[in-house]
Specification:
This protein has 373 residues and is an alpha+beta fold. It folds into two domains: 231 residues, Hypothetical protein, domain 2 (Endonuclease III, domain 1, Orthogonal Bundle); 116 residues, Alpha-Beta Complex (Nucleoside Triphosphate Pyrophosphohydrolase). The chain contains 13 helices and seven strands. Helix 2 packs across helix 3. The relative contact order is 0.11. The N terminus is likely disordered. The structure holds iron/sulfur cluster. Iron/sulfur cluster binds next to helix 9 and helix 12. The site of iron/sulfur cluster has 15 residues, from helix 9 and helix 12.
Length: 373
């Protein structure tokens, strides 16, 4: 519950908050002035005076979901080079998209990205809808992404809310309702701040402020452009906000992964079904952890030895996978499986959990590359 009704009303310019001096400028003006001087230079971001391209904004926002900016920066350029337009992405086979995505994690995003590109190319003539409502109709675009694209690419008065922005707003307005119950309240407060003009810059300024100044620990309040109207700072300890309801522990699953290695260095792989967890990605045979297959059934009758145990945390569960390793000189692959040369492993769409499993059995295997011919 909020401590007071202060939480639902933005402090106006000139209003005194606690012991803080009156703000010099309303939040949007102060924040935009700060953004003009301190904005982060990101590869997908339009330079000052340039217009943002909806395709680039969409691509970066999907990549940034649950992934760090530094990681996305590495993948974004490669992805854009390979798929420079939404039409090119729509025409590409899903397998190529997944291969280029491999390593970014949360592969449902890549499948939705591809599905979304196809809808935009086929049903919208290659142009993204320009409203939050229209964007939300597209595969893989939720509330945050729709608001971010609408604001940044189309200048709509929209307020994207992610963890960083929730933190800024909770502190600015001293919202003491714990998350996630506070979400609607924080969304309404954020929306109350969005200016009519430069809504896209304002959204990006909030993102930058949350990422660089109003950090989870030790926020840099001294240099914050909003420090003269921040109720959390006025109350004394903004770092305590936002409050969070205690988290339920993730369920734990266990399973077995079999890494079969041929004497020529090839590894036995297969492709997961299109639908479901890690759909369409490559894996070593595994079972017992995703509801598919009998955990006791190895893909080949070999002398398996235990190579170790790896752990991996998915969105909805934590996995402990026992890795078994065996060598063979058989050229035969069981139905639905294939032998892949070790030098080709880096170009397979292997999710991180499967890379971990292979590395546990054959250290360095997923990083060997075929020498240039
Ligand atoms: S003054 Fe401090 S707590 Fe308040 S918004 Fe700025 S950095 Fe965050």
């Amino acid at each position: 519950m909020s401590r007071t009704n202060l939480a639902v009303k933005a402090p106006a310019a000139g209003e005194t908050v606690g012991r803080m001096p009156a703000p010099k400028a309303p939040a949007p003006k102060a924040l935009l002035a700060w953004y003009d001087r301190h904005r982060r230079d990101l590869p997908w971001r339009a330079k000052p005076g340039e217009t943002s391209e909806p395709y680039k904004v969409w691509l970066s926002e999907i990549m940034l979901q649950q992934t760090r900016v530094e990681t996305v920066a590495r993948y974004y350029e490669v992805f854009l080079k390979k798929f420079p337009t939404v039409e090119k992405l729509a025409k590409a086979p899903l397998e190529n998209v997944l291969k280029t995505w491999a390593g970014l994690g949360y592969y449902a995003r890549a499948r939705n990205l591809h599905a979304c590109a196809r809808v935009v190319a086929r049903e919208h003539g290659g142009k993204f809808p320009g409203t939050e409502e229209g964007l939300r109709e597209l595969p893989g675009i939720g509330g945050y992404t729709a608001a971010a694209i609408a604001a940044i690419a189309f200048g709509r008065k929209a307020a994207p809310m992610d963890g960083n922005i929730e933190r800024v707003v909770a502190r600015l307005f001293q919202v003491e309702t714990p998350l996630p119950a506070a979400k609607p309240e924080l969304q309404a407060l954020a929306a109350s701040l969005v200016p009519l003009k430069r809504a896209g810059d304002f959204a990006q300024a909030m993102m930058d402020l949350g990422a660089t100044i109003c950090t989870p620990r030790r926020p840099h309040c001294l240099t914050c452009p909003l420090n003269d109207l921040c109720r959390g700072l006025a109350a004394g300890d903004p770092e305590l906000l936002p409050l969070r309801a205690p988290k339920a522990e993730k369920p734990r699953r266990t399973g077995i992964a079999w890494v079969a290695e041929r004497t020529d260095g090839s590894v036995l792989l297969r492709t997961r079904p299109e639908r479901g967890l890690l759909g369409g990605m490559t894996e070593v045979p595994s079972a017992g952890w995703d509801g598919r297959g009998d955990p006791g059934a190895a893909p080949l009758d070999l002398a398996w030895r235990r190579a170790g145990t790896i752990t991996h945390v998915f969105t909805h569960f934590a996995l402990e996978l026992e890795v078994r390793h065996a060598a063979t000189d058989s050229p035969v692959a069981p139905p639905g499986h294939r032998w892949v040369d070790a030098a080709d492993l880096p170009s397979e769409a292997l999710p991180t959990v499967m890379k971990k499993a292979i590395e546990a059995a054959i250290p360095g295997a997923t990083r060997r590359r075929r020498p240039a011919e």
